[in-house]
Amino acid sequence: MSPPDAHSLVASLRDRGLTIATAESLTGGLVCAALTDVPGASAVVRGGVVGYATDAKASVLGVDPDVLGRRGAVDPEVARQMAEGVCRVLASDVGVATTGVAGPDPQDGRPVGTVHLAVSMGGSTRVCSLLLHGDRAAIRRATVVAALDLVSQVLDDTAER
């Protein structure tokens, strides 16, 4: 079942004539699945890239390999570049990215629950960093909700301008 805000998010994108694409690591496609669970999502969802492996983030999404080498895959700058990259790769108006550590073990020196999200739209990108708690499944579910919420916030903010 999709998170409750996925329906309103798809409707908002449709009403504004915008498309969305996802670039996912720790969520493994769950954000795109939440969006495509909504009837009529095909009008707005361009697709998703699961760049689970670090090298896929560089080769598919265009994340700078030097940034990945210096900072690791769990980093706010990586999330930013993933969101911007998926907009280019899938020709979407909005890109949302997730990267982080769902567990059970730390990664790149980052504790379990470290999550970085990014939403790119109209040449601007907003990044959000979280420290979530729970088991692997709970962290991944909370990341999906947080990612959809961040997209909604960006849409609301741009509507107010």
Keywords:
45% helix; 161 residues; alpha/beta; Maf protein
Descriptive overview:
With 161 residues, the protein is α/β, with parallel strands linked by helices. It has one domain: CinA-like (Maf protein, Alpha-Beta Complex), CATH 3.90.950.20. The chain is 45% helix and 21% strand. Strands 2-1-3-4-5 form a 5-stranded mixed beta sheet, sandwiched between helices. It is globular. The mean pLDDT is 95.
Task: Summarize this structure briefly.
With 161 residues, the protein is α/β, with parallel strands linked by helices. It contains six helices and five strands.
CATH class: Alpha Beta
The pLDDT mean sits at 95
Question: Kindly, what is the distance between the CA atoms of the first and last residues, rounded to a whole number of angstroms?
Answer: 33 Å
SSE run: HEHEHHHEEEH
Give unreliable regions as ranges.
Answer: none
Number of helices: 6
Shape: globular
* Structural classification: alpha/beta
Strand order in the largest sheet: 2-1-3-4-5
* Number of DSSP strand runs: 5
Helix content: 40-55%
CATH architecture grouping: Alpha-Beta Complex
Q: How would you sum up the major sheet?
A: 5 strands, mixed
The proportion of strand residues reads: 15-25%
Secondary-structure blueprint of this entry?
Layout: H1 4-16, E1 20-24, H2 30-36, E2 45-50, H3 54-59, H4 65-71, H5 76-90, E3 94-100, E4 114-121, E5 124-131, H6 136-160
Parallel strand pairs: 1-2, 1-3
Antiparallel strand pairs: 3-4, 4-5
Helix pairs in contact: 1-6
